[in-house]
Amino acid sequence: MRRLLFLFLxxxxxxxxxxxxxxxxxxxxxxxxxxxxxxxxxxxxNGSGIYTRPDRMVHNLKQLEARVALCNANTNTGWLPDEExxxxxxxxxxxxxxxQ
Length: 100
Description:
About 70% of the residues lie in helices and about 0% in strands. It is built from 7 helices and no strands. Helix 3 (about 25-35) packs across helix 7 (about 80-95) and helix 6 packs across helix 7. It is globular, with a radius of gyration of 17 Å. The mean pLDDT is about 85.
């Protein structure tokens, strides 16, 4: 039994151990519904300046995840963890391009 478990763990793909990646299409819908209005008020136009500004606060994927969770909590959007992952996936694909 131990040998079988050992073999399973050795040959388990690394991707299976990684955090599930979100769905950028769903994330885009969530951002458009809950984020754009506030970001546009802060940065004008369509609000994307918050992601592209030279002095942005997010420099890696972990910081992006933390920022999305903070915004979710501070604005009471009520997103579930899966929805936060979807938003992170969209923002990373659209603006940040951090390696997974």
